Amino acid sequence: MGHPLLEVKQVKKHFPVKGTIPFVPSRQSVKAVDNVNFHVMPGETLGIVGESGCGKSTLARLINRLISPTEGEMNFKNKDLVSLSKRDLRTVRKNIQMVFQDPYASLDPRKRVGQLIEEPLVIHGVGDSVSRKRRVAELLEIVGLNPRYQNRYAHEFSGGQRQRINIARALTLNPELIICDEPVSALDVSVQAQVINLLKDLQKQFQLTYIFISHDLNVVRYMCDRIAVMYLGKIVEIGSYEEIYHSPKHPYTQALLSAIPVESPYENKERIILTGNVPSPIAPPPGCAFHERCPFVMDKCKTETPPLIETTEAHRASCHLIKKEEE
Asked: How far apart are CA 316 and CA 308, in angstroms?
């Protein structure tokens, strides 16, 4: 199996809530990420899914150290990202890049495309001006754009082309891990397919490792080797895509998968409708975070938080129903 490229251990991120009384600090906080554990092996794609507000994007920014965790460890190639100095973190960041959701907001409108792609090389002092220009032209060709486009501005491109520019910039320093935070959700369906296929081809060409965040479960099934399902800041199920799609154990995962549109009008599929609202991350309910919406809730669910229970060698789920089935 080898050693994981990235290990995330008991990571939490709590954002303090501003108090309503002047000069009196509030004791409340938003538990955006709450005790998350997983690992990513070299060359694989780990998908992270869940509804809006569950903590997916916050987790992505934690891994890239755009924000610092409240607690926990994040080991990248046996280096703890949490304890690194700013200088050491800059060195490690060459190997961890990110593709953001909005292909326009993540590009500086005042700079030309060539400057945007060249910027990481300038920051890290890689090569001279001539070699950097050559690298920019090479990257534009790799992502399917004309090298002459490097003198244009971001507003002169379509959404799909802008995302290709973002991907080229992420590849500039030859990273090992790329975090894709919903990279195709803002694109047309036909363009989505092109960008997804580009990411797959680049992974084979450069032996990349992806953390792929998405709402689209069909895209996740196509892209990912393993899938982690998040709910209210926690991972409630994680496993290979075959086990998640064909044998989901957590009721929340089952409800998510039931929402995938059927491929044929003659296919009968039962839709699981969840009742109730998502609890507030400021005051999550005791016990299982999903128990207020779960159709199979038991008394134990309201008081005891279920651990991630291993169902197979590579499949774990956080649900008391699993223990009940074993009994």
From this structure: 6
pLDDT in tens, 9-42: 999 999 988 766 666 667 789 999 999 999 999 9
Which residues sit opposite 33 in a β-bridge?
13
| pLDDT, tens digit, 9 for 90 and up, residues 66-97 | 999 999 999 999 899 999 988 889 889 899 99
Residues 6+ apart with CB under 8 A from 240: 225, 226, 227, 314, 315
> Residues 258, 262, 263, 267: is their CA dihedral positive or negative?
positive
Q: Which two tokens stand for residue 254?
A: 């089952």
Predicted TM-score (pTM) of the model is: 0.91
Enumerate residues 6+ apart whose C-beta is below 8 A from 287. 300, 301, 302, 303, 304, 305
Max distance between CA atoms of the chain, in angstroms, equals 68
Report the C-alpha gap between 285 and 119 in whole angstroms: 45
3-state secondary structure of 9: strand
Residue 303's closest CA among 324, 320, 316, 283?
320
What three-state secondary structure class fits 13?
Answer: strand
Residue 51 φ/ψ, nearest 5 degrees: -75, 165
Give the residue among 142, 158, 147 at the shortest CA–CA distance from 203: 142
